[in-house]
């Protein structure tokens, strides 16, 4: 198989960096160029110094569209549409957008959650990559929604690492503030609820329950932890079985029979789930790396699917473990 | 005022150490002795080296009961009763127990949550100091319970620092495991629910709702964060007003009109609350230091109340802030 | 004793906040006003929310000079002189400057390191408060310098918490960057070396050795750790004795006979030293809190000395311990 | 190429776990079995839950020697010799020992630092894998030693993550103690100095300088940072050039022209160096992951070399980056 000529737009940020870390060693990808206005003409190791010894690539501010077979867009939310208008890629260029701009499936984009939309992704040439919290929450709940088990409000608490807020400086990302600290934001109103509910409606058109989501800022850099629960009349065994069945072909989503913790998933493309029944509730925990399964890793998983490669290609990552 | 002759039983652990840090500079306390079987005859600065320059005290394994006006029991849960049986203090010795053993108000103990039981504590000579999670959750919810606002299940998520698990070594307190990590334990079954419900029944004998509590192990050493919510028909303003009224005489519990974060309360005896209405729910956040308002600080607050001192005495602590 | 009318200039930053945390409960201080241009008319709890329930003070942008008995200047380095030119305080107003601007003893300022300059501080009305690294390093080495023991280069490594870099946002203070990380800056050229050598010359006019200082950015918020060593022909006992003698009247500097760690000093005004002889070298470790003994705590210690109060007044702080 | 039948002895610990994480996806390795007495018959995902979905292997307590082409020994220091006596592997089995037991090159072991001993490793069937601090320090200094530049004592400070101390519980690995903390241990006497000096003697038989090494316990889980310096008469450019020449064929050791930080190397097999001249000293910084280049990663690098594979095989790891 020849290598796919691939471009990265917005290569200086966190998700751009993760794409680079993964694509440099992807056996079927050739990085044609990495775009960044701010870092133009600088080596990418200037922004991503951990890549020393792995690449001699230099950022460019020129967007070449011709001959590009796949392009990853890692632009700030809201800027993708105007970028694509200014830089029209060929009809058959695979576009994978990491922003929130097309997650409503507008403009012909497919919602890139492989566990739900595998077939659509196989046939897509425009993929909207899911949000990080959205990925963790949907994978925790999708089998229950599909089964029609949810007949009351779903209660969700989610904790995200600081990289979810990106590279830009902010008071809530100041080390002196965030270390040893804990806080809530966007209570019940997080923007990812929109794409979550869209998927739930797709799985069960009659779904109409509230998703009460408490998002926390965690005192760590990578990872998202989700706890979700709702009243459930079935047994734990029944639930575990249904989840195993639902995810039996999933490349990266696993149901653990042991208690889980966040670091099991950090620096991998996995989503690790654990299921419990207690006090009449079905509780599902999920752990992902917000920058991988929650962003750049899933983007490459989508690339693999869309171009017909095994989903694991370039994504068998060593977890941080400790 | 002469100084109260005070003993500390179990002075080598975390809560024992915090008692020492506070009592050494308490203007109306004289530490008669500090008991520890394991550290017998060693200077207390051996176990608590930060106290260098502040005390020359040495641990003893002899329990003197005579002449002791107040005694703090910082023994492992389950050991207090047999200790008191073996070492009977005088009727008028003030006993403040930090364990869970008498929080059911057995054996004449008063439940030492000053915001609820001020009068009883004023007249008590046996005080059962509340649990850390129990303190954070009760202070978040007491005014709502008292008002009779809770007519459905209460959803609570709580995150505790590692010091809540004490000095003993455990896999889940290993630095390599816990750093950058996050996990759940005792889902819906945390032992503090018992004392929480006991207080709620006291505030509203008809209270009969579920308290669904998700306890998390946080990636920090000190502090407890609580988020609690339930369906509420009133307005945010009404709720804020009721909470301000309820806590208007509280020495350490405050309602913040700003968003709060955990470190505001760390290394203080405060409980800082913030209140929000969203999606038909009343949401209350509370932040405390698990070793202070959640343990040793509250124990000294109880001492102050029981012996007729201003509640702040010896407890005007500088927060860690950063 | 009546209370000293005190002003804080630059009250919204980290050291300004620490001054407030301490002065609010200082028994002989009345805070006349807290100045901040950026926070004018906002409650100080807006910038320092942990102070809820302790103060109703509001920031002002008006500099009142009349009737002020003591003023703390917590302005950015380089701005103090022009501030004082614009706002001339009375001759007998005690000025304590936390910036680096007058640490060269210009304009009549005394260098405010109490362990060295006690008498001068007692008689001063202008005090230049030492730098944080400078405090840790000088207290580690002063007795050795005074004894004339140092006849070769001194090797120092020092690690600082993130609060040393202040409130402003910077790439090296980004939580995602700094967490779990470690790096060097200003190798051998740190600006504090100037005041360190000035003191060493004061203690021993013939002192002329190099101080090779490796400053590290640590992965914690508060504290400075110093390791210093140089060839030494005497014994460990001799050194310990000399240090104990040198610091026998010091209010906050202690020599520990046990191994020390940084957190013993965090959130206190202490400097904790430990001394070791190994491989022909005398090694001294010192641990301080960079914002307290390294800044605001020492400033208040200087205030106490200058106005004739016991040095501990308002400074008996509970360490964070964990 | 057929796959090498490989065994791991001591697979339940930290370095055993890292070996597993890497070998499972090594294209030329087949894991014959993973030995652990304590975890016998349990799935390896029980000890290493992050490996869910990647392996169905189960620990065994049976040591099979026949047919094993390569064996990794990840036993506690001091236990390897008696293990090998009890379990004699065939003459041509490649033995890679991660303990300190044969780093003195006894019993026919080659010291497995590829940057220095490449040829010997290519021909070895017994390899003693270097210590973590030893790797970081030797790679920082080897080119200078080889050039004969070091004519005075070398001053080294090194900071290690908590995983260097292994899985067992200890007071200094307690999360409540170590978080936000910093301390020294084994000052000037660290056991790795022995193998460091052995290599320096190999590079320059006349080398006879002191290596004054201050080892710190860092407040992070993974990584080792080294700062080393000594008087140097040449220029920075000359030094950089010599280092680039020395490491021009090194697979994982790189000289960065930018300032470096620890996390650039974390979760990779790289050693990243930076060189500076200041105050008459040549300063070299090095950053490695203590469990990878400092242990299991280097062990696999040695395997690759010994069996004739490209050094990168199975070791192109995504850094944690944040």
From TrEMBL, chains A, B, C, D:
Chief location bin: cytoplasm
Compartment annotation: Cytoplasm
Pathway: Amino-acid biosynthesis; L-arginine biosynthesis; N(2)-acetyl-L-ornithine from L-glutamate: step 3/4
Protein's UniProt keywords contain Ligase: no
Reaction(s) catalysed by this chain's protein: N-acetyl-L-glutamate 5-semialdehyde + phosphate + NADP(+) = N-acetyl-L-glutamyl 5-phosphate + NADPH + H(+)
Cellular-component GO terms for this entry: cytoplasm
Keyword Transcription: no
GO molecular function, one term: NAD binding
Domain Semialdehyde dehydrogenase NAD-binding intervals: 5-124
UniProt xrefs under InterPro entries: AGPR (IPR050085), AGPR_AS (IPR023013), AGPR_dimerisation_dom (IPR058924), AGPR_type-1 (IPR000706), NAD(P)-bd_dom_sf (IPR036291), Semialdehyde_DH_NAD-bd (IPR000534)
Annotated EC: 1.2.1.38
An individual GO BP term: L-arginine biosynthetic process
Domain of life: Bacteria
Keywords: Amino-acid biosynthesis, Arginine biosynthesis, Cytoplasm, NADP, Oxidoreductase
Active site residues of this protein: 132
Family: Belongs to the NAGSA dehydrogenase family. Type 1 subfamily.
Job of this protein: Catalyzes the NADPH-dependent reduction of N-acetyl-5-glutamyl phosphate to yield N-acetyl-L-glutamate 5-semialdehyde.
NCBIfam families assigned to the protein according to its UniProt record, in alphabetical order: argC
HAMAP family the record matches: ArgC_type1
Protein's name in the database: N-acetyl-gamma-glutamyl-phosphate reductase
Organism of this sequence: Mongoliitalea lutea
